[in-house]
Amino acid sequence: MDSQRARQIISSPDEVMVSYNGVSVWIDKVHEDDRTATVHLRQAMEERSEVAISELKEHRQ
């Protein structure tokens, strides 16, 4: 995924399925470096991680 698409997903009114290392996540924020984003697991909102945007995968429904 690229940073532009990650930003589109964050602002989309529709639910977009995204995974990181095979685990379903929500994208919370794209960082100013345009290479990393903060995500959290769909089940547990408390755990947040900073990950490489290139490692995020969008799943078409």
UniProtKB/TrEMBL annotation:
<dbReference type="Pfam" id="PF08141">
    <property type="entry name" value="SspH"/>
</dbReference>
<dbReference type="InterPro" id="IPR012610">
    <property type="entry name" value="SASP_SspH"/>
</dbReference>
<keyword id="KW-0749">Sporulation</keyword>
<comment type="similarity">
    <text>Belongs to the SspH family.</text>
</comment>
<protein>
    <submittedName>
        <fullName>H-type small acid-soluble spore protein</fullName>
    </submittedName>
</protein>
